[in-house]
Amino acid sequence: MEANSKQFNEDQLIKDFKSVLTDLEDLLQVTANTGGEKLGEIRAKAETSLGAVKATMADAPATLLNKTKEAAALADDYVQDNPWRSIGLAASVGLVVGLLISRR
Predict the structure, then answer these.
(1) Residue 62 and residue 54: Cα distance in Å, rounded?
(2) What is the pLDDT of residues 33-76, one digit of tens each?
(3) DSSP conformational letter for 32
(4) Cβ(11)–Cβ(44) under 8 Å?
(5) Radius of gyration over alpha carbons of the chain, in Å?
(6) Nearest-CA neighbor of 86 among 74, 103, 98, 99?
């Protein structure tokens, strides 16, 4: 249940962030013919930053997926190479979690 709530919060955050980016683009377009030299410099910086953020947001899911796959492959390799050590570690973690739960 908590995982679904966390996923919803992340999805909502991404949706809100994209909305802010869209609003910023609209603002930059509306103010394109307004103001003096200083406002033009600020607008140019904002457009550059906006482009960088969009590029980062576009690459983020693929990067995250690749890093997750790499971590899973490393974990799988470790378990394959050290099965008894992995079993011992899992048993230890289970014991600690069990003790913590039993105290409540």
Answers:
(1) 14
(2) 776 777 777 777 777 887 777 777 777 777 888 889 999 999 99
(3) T
(4) no
(5) 24
(6) 74
Token pair in block for residue 35: 């103001």
Domain count, the chain: 1
Instruction: For residue 9, give Cα distances in angstroms to 82, 101, 102.
Output: 37, 27, 31
With a CB cutoff of 8 Å and minimum separation 6, the contacts of 57 are 17, 18, 21
What pTM, to 2 d.p., does this model score?
Answer: 0.42
E strand or H helix at 33: none
Going from the C-alpha of 47 to that of each of 11, 28, 58, 60, 66, the distances in angstroms are 25, 8, 16, 20, 29
Range(s) of the domain holding residue 48: 2-103
pLDDT tier, 101 (very low <50, low <70, confident <90, very high otherwise): very high
8 has a pLDDT exceeding 60: no
